[in-house]
Amino acid sequence: MTDSSREFDVVVFGATGFVGVLTADYLARHAPAGTRIALAGRSQDKLTKARSTLPASAQDWPLIVADADSASSLDAMAARTRVVCTTVGPYLKYGELVLAATVNAGSDYVDLTGEVPFVRYSIDKFGEQAEANGARIVHSCGFDSVPSDIGVYLLHKAVSEAGEGELTDTTLVVSSFAGGVSGGTVDSMRVIATEARNPETRRILLDPQALSTGPGEHRLRTAVKQPSDAMIVKGSSIDPSIKGTLAPFVMAAHNTRIVRRTNALLGNAYGANFRYGEAMAVGKNPVLSAATAGLVSVGLGGFLGLMAMAPTRKVLDRILPKAGDGPSEKTRENGHFTVDVYTRTTTGKRFKSRVKAQGDPGYKATAVMLGESALTLALDRDKLPNRTGVLTPAAAMGDALVDRLRSAGLTLEAGPLA
Q1: What are the GO cellular component annotations (predicted)?
Q2: What is the DSSP letter of 321?
Q3: At what angle are helices 116-133 and 96-105 packed, to 10 degrees?
Q4: Which of 97, 103, 196, 416 has the most other CB atoms within 10 Å of its CB?
Q5: Domains of the chain
Q6: 73 versus 179: which is more confidently predicted?
Q7: Contact indicator for 10, 83 with CB cutoff of 8 Å
Q8: What single-letter DSSP state applies at residue 409?
Q9: Strand pairing partners for 308?
Q10: Closest CA to 14 of 119, 84, 114
Q11: Model-level pTM greater than 0.90?
Q12: Which residues are paired to 108 by β-bridges?
């Protein structure tokens, strides 16, 4: 269902960037016939060039010149569309005016942020206005954090439908992963590392419930002690089927907070003692996996530390991907991910959900998840939960997004374990 009062259903902002082009290409190939889509960015020439690389169905898509630093251009863009789909990051640098324009227009919004401070800012600055204007602001609609958020949502549904109580200790395990890194991702990590010097930002980054509150940090739920974001844990402690030691997962510090926010927005539906963490499989051999997990933990901490210091950051900048760069088409096509979410319920039963996709997690698969999120908000409004404000993928779209992702080829399943 579309809104005829708006000229477009979806505007892809940042359509000349690496992920923006991938998202536009996905929409050109998979959006239902008649979906009204436009491409936006700061350069008419670059937009024209980007559009020329897309399938024939996109060649008549309108182009909108809008700049992340120009409030007036963003206001004009947001007022024309039902959904703003933005790939312009780092969002701490370029996201504020886009959010403001979207909320002022009462439009919906999806992005790819993996930046906890940006989501916290969004809640405090725009949460009440977004709710009043009927806008759905949905952050983290790519690999960060759709698999985590939807994986736990499916687990909750399966447990509830089986009448097996509530979720307790719940852990996402990245069971398999293959993909590349782009300059945009590196730039976001650079911004986070730099911002962490600020005591208030550091407080937000270290708070496991940093996003589980309303505007002005009004508490939405009672805090429960949560697992470490840098957990090193024996797989068998999560489920007897998991061999070896699990390593920290690089995006746990963001994904876990999105999942906890969903629980808060759903009225603590996952359970009074819901605890959620994320880890990554690094092999089944007890000795080698333990050693690898330790190296991963040290490496992640060291990398962020080096990114925060100007001299070492300059060295890293010479060897890391530049903004606008990304994995090759072969890497994108051959990539994949599988995440399994395990829980034990209050009745003592064990359940597992799985989210699996073909394609580079951060690029090809992310373009699918972001594109389908935008289409869900634009076309499935009669199927959405009656909820507005600063939301999460599961809280904003729930079953409607699950249905679209399944139709797009993702594996999404949940059920009891023997």
Answers
A1: plasma membrane
A2: P
A3: 10
A4: 103
A5: 8-142+363-407 (3.40.50.720), 146-358 (no CATH)
A6: 73
A7: yes
A8: T
A9: none
A10: 84
A11: yes
A12: 83
